C-alpha cells in the first residue's frame, strides 16, 4: 500500500504568507470558499498552514504555492514551498512577463518620454526640496 | 418577500446545480486574477460573479482563490496535481466564452461523467432491502400486493406464530 504524498489531504495549496519569524518556516494563510447552508452564499474560510522554506526567501505578503510533503516534517509542518507565485511589491504579469503594480505596468515609468507634465513638475519639486535639505546640512 | 441582493438567483440550489463544469481529478487549485474596473476585465468580472459559485458547488475540493487588481491583464490559472500550471488569458472574453473554454480544457467530458454514474449505480443493487440511505426499500411489506405490515394491519390468525404453536400443541 504505497502512499506517495498522503500525509495530508491537501496536496497543492495556494496561500498568502503571514509570518516568517520562524527559522526556515513560513506561516501561510489559505482561504477556501465555503458554502453557508442557509444563505447559500460562498464565504472565505481561513486556515493557516506552516510550510518549510529552506532558503527563507518568503516575505510577509507573498502569494505562495505549497506542495504537500510525503511525510510530516514536524508536528505542524506538512508542506513545503513549491514556488512564489506573486512576490509582494514585485508582481510580474504572467501573460506579458513585465513587472506591474495594480493595473499599471511599471516598465515604462522610467522613460522620460512617457512622463506627463504633472509628473515632471512633481519630480522637479521633489528635486528642489532635496537640494534645499542638503544645503541646510 | 423577494430575496435579498443584486442577483439573488445565484443563491438558489437550482442555479448552483445547473453548473456543468466538473473539473478533472487532477485540478487542485484555481486562481482568478481580475480587475474591478476597465472593459478588458468585464468578462472576468461576470465570470466571477455568475459562474464561480456554480463551479465551487460542483467541485467542493478545488481551492478557488480570487485576486483583484494585481496585474493589468485578467487571467485564470489552474494548478494540477502533477505540478503543471495552466494559464488562461481572459482579456476581452465574455463570461460564457470563458466558461466554455474552461470546460473544454479542464472539465470532465460527458462520457466520463456518464461512465462514473454507471459505475456508481453498479455498486448498489436495487433488489436489496435495507436502510433508506443505501437501498430503495426497507421491508417487503412496502410493496403492493404483498402481505401488509403487521404494525398497521394485524396478520390473519393462521399466520401468527402464537396460533401455529397452539395448533401444534393440540395435535
Give the class-level CATH name of the largest domain in chain B: Alpha Beta
> Quick one: CATH superfamily of the largest domain in chain B?
Glutaredoxin
Examine the secondary-structure arrangement and name the CATH architecture of the largest domain in chain B: 3-Layer(aba) Sandwich
What is the helix content of chain A? 10-25%
- Main-sheet strand order of chain A equals 1-2-3-5-4
Write the CATH fold name of the largest domain in chain B. Answer: Glutaredoxin
Please give a structural write-up.
With 137 residues, chain A is an alpha+beta fold. Chain A has two domains: 1-88, Beta Barrel (OB fold (Dihydrolipoamide Acetyltransferase, E2P)); 89-136, no CATH class. Chain A has one helix at 117-136, and strands at residues 12-19, 25-35, 42-52, 63-68, 77-86, 100-101, 104-105. Chain A starts with 11 loop residues before the first strand and ends with a helix. Chain B has five helices and four strands. A four-stranded mixed β-sheet of chain B has the order 2-1-3-4, with helices on one face. In chain B, strand 3 and strand 4 (85-89) form a beta hairpin. The longest helix of chain B is centred in the first third of the chain and has 17 residues, at 42-58. The model of chain B has no long low-confidence stretch (mean pLDDT 92). Chain A binds chain B through residues 10-14, 30-33, 35, 39-42, 63, 65, 67, 82, 85-86, 91, 93-96, 100, 102-105, and chain B through 11-13, 16, 28-29, 31, 35, 37-38, 52-53, 56-57, 63-65, 67, 69-73, 75, 77, 79, 81, 83, 87, 89, 91. Chain A: Keywords: Mitochondrion, Ribonucleoprotein, Ribosomal protein, RNA-binding, rRNA-binding. Chain A: This is Small ribosomal subunit protein uS17m. Chain A: One of its GO terms (molecular function) is structural constituent of ribosome.
In short:
The complex is a heterodimer of chains A (137) and B (171). Chain A is of the alpha+beta class and 137 residues long. Chain A has one helix at 117-136; strands at 12-19, 25-35, 42-52, 63-68, 77-86, 100-101, 104-105.
Amino acid at each position: 500500500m504505497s502512499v506517495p504524498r498522503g500525509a495530508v489531504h491537501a496536496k497543492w495549496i495556494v496561500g498568502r504568507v503571514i509570518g516568517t519569524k520562524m527559522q526556515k518556516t513560513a506561516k501561510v494563510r489559505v482561504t477556501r470558499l465555503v458554502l453557508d447552508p442557509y444563505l447559500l452564499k460562498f464565504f472565505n474560510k481561513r486556515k493557516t498552514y506552516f510550510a518549510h522554506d529552506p532558503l527563507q526567501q518568503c516575505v510577509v505578503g507573498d502569494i505562495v504555492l505549497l506542495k504537500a510533503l510525503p511525510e510530516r516534517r514536524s508536528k505542524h509542518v506538512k508542506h513545503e514551498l513549491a514556488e512564489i507565485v506573486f512576490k509582494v511589491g514585485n508582481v510580474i504579469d504572467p501573460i506579458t512577463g513585465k513587472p506591474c503594480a495594480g493595473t499599471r505596468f511599471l516598465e515604462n515609468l522610467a522613460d522620460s518620454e512617457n512622463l506627463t507634465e504633472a509628473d515632471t513638475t512633481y519630480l522637479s519639486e521633489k528635486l528642489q526640496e532635496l537640494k534645499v535639505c542638503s544645503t541646510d546640512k | 418577500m423577494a430575496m435579498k441582493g443584486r442577483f439573488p438567483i445565484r443563491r438558489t440550489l437550482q442555479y448552483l446545480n445547473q453548473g456543468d463544469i466538473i473539473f478533472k481529478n487532477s485540478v487542485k487549485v484555481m486562481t482568478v486574477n481580475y480587475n474591478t474596473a476597465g472593459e478588458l476585465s468585464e468578462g472576468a468580472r461576470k465570470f466571477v460573479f455568475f459562474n464561480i459559485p456554480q463551479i465551487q458547488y460542483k467541485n467542493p475540493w478545488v481551492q478557488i482563490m480570487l485576486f483583484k487588481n494585481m496585474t493589468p491583464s485578467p487571467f485564470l490559472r489552474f494548478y494540477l496535481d502533477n505540478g503543471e500550471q495552466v494559464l488562461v488569458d481572459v482579456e476581452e472574453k465574455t463570461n460564457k466564452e470563458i466558461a466554455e473554454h474552461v470546460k473544454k480544457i479542464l472539465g470532465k467530458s460527458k462520457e466520463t461523467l456518464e461512465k462514473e454514474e454507471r459505475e456508481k449505480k453498479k455498486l448498489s443493487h436495487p433488489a436489496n432491502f435495507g436502510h433508506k440511505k443505501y437501498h430503495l426499500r426497507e421491508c417487503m411489506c412496502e410493496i403492493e400486493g404483498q402481505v401488509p405490515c403487521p404494525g398497521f394491519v394485524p396478520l390473519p390468525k393462521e399466520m401468527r406464530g402464537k396460533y401455529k404453536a397452539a395448533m401444534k400443541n393440540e395435535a
